[in-house]
Design brief:
Number of helices: 3
Oligomer: single chain
Largest sheet: none
Distance between the termini: 25 Å
Shape: globular
Order of helices and strands: HHH
Radius of gyration: 12 Å
Number of strands: 0
Amino acid sequence: MPFNEFINLATLYRIQNRLKDKRIGHKAAQEQKGIEWEGRQHSGFVDAYNLAKLALTML
């Protein structure tokens, strides 16, 4: 197994933005942060790229 730990970005996003129990989608989270969505949603590489852009704004 290459990784022993992970960060749940959805949980971290909700904590940072005080959303408590409200769920928000990946694309909506990016739009709220003013990050342009690139590519087709639910495509592995594209989702990973867009999640990385979101994660950089959260760190």
